[in-house]
Specification:
The chain has about 30 residues and is mainly alpha-helical. The protein is built from one helix and no strands. Helix content is about 95%, strand content about 0%.
């Protein structure tokens, strides 16, 4: 059970990082 929780947290942080990167890219493209 604890392992699953760790996996979920790890997965969500990775997802957040990807979302942040995508937003950054969109901002960058909008800047150009």
């Amino acid at each position: 059970m604890e392992n699953q929780l760790k996996l979920k947290v790890c997965g969500s942080t990775k997802l957040n990082q990807i979302q942040a990167l995508i937003e950054l890219k969109i901002d960058f493209l909008g800047f150009i």
